[in-house]
Amino acid sequence: MSRIALVSCVAGLALAGACGEGGVDIDNPLTDPEDGPPAGNPDGNCTIPASGGLADSSSPRTVVGDGSAASCTGDAFIAAVAAGGVITFACGPDPVTITLDRPAKIFNDTGPDITIDGGGKVTLSGGGRTRILYMNTCDQAQRWTTPMCNNQDHPRLTVQNLTFVDGNSKNEDEYDGGGAIWSRGGQLKLVNTRFFGNVCADTGPDVGGAGVRAFDQFEDRPIYVVNSTFGGAEGFGNTCSNGGGISSIGVSWSIYNSLFSHNHAIGNGGNPPQGGAPGGGSGGAIYNDGNEMTLSLCGVSITDNDVVQHGSAIFFVTNNHTGDVRIDQSVITRNLGGTWYTQYPQISSHDDTPIVVTNSTIE
Fold it and tell me: Which of 32, 93, 295, 315 suits a disulfide with 282, CB 3.0-4.6 Å?
């Protein structure tokens, strides 16, 4: 197990909370080069606020498995997610892959805190056939718990020390996008996670997020992505119409010490679609749309992603021309394709979108 030292803090850092009290160190067990690129950007050294740290998983409600790899089945994992609370795994001493034949779905009254902790040894696979994890506070089938389903503080879902591979949401009609994870409402946090080979719809103007698709976080709080990897090397990338790594509407993100590389936005025609094309093709790594949102990057590497239309690294559009992008101690380079680069190469946004860049390389 390696330990990433998270101690640096730049004076005047624009990321809210990054230089405040309560910064935490995070153990990162996902570093075995034999099973894919490690979790996180090895050159990322930004301080993590306490709210972005690992959740306590010491007292699980459910332990998946009885100590053997054979006991860690897709059905067992799906049942554990339905039961909620803290979920850990006992699958033996070696890394294990659990393949699902249908998504694991969170029920909104089984928290309020739900943590899925793979301990650095568990890979969840969609087998190239199914989405892996689904949370939706406005889906009646998952039980409504408040009258304001799109702005409630629970479930508070933390996914940590896990790898998601071969998720596929192409067969999803109503809740599309999100090849590995689809999330609406409550709060979502990803720590020490990896996303390899996940896919969602090939075309469409506003469908995206081969790794993660997100909507409606409580009180517009950001989704934390910490020490995580989307792709990371050739052959491990994620692919969708838009947002090869992540995609969202009206959601803010605080991303720390993470790596996005070799992801692909393969739609064409943009949003709205042009020239009779089906639409899409924007946001090789990150696709953000909506209003009044912030994308904050610190210690992040975005390299070698590609697009057809716009934003080979980042596509960030607020419909009412609010919101901003904050980039610190990060590297954005070698992302290919696309047009509409109004302020910085590889970043597509309105020309009046505030983009604050400090101690970073964009070229």
Answer: 315
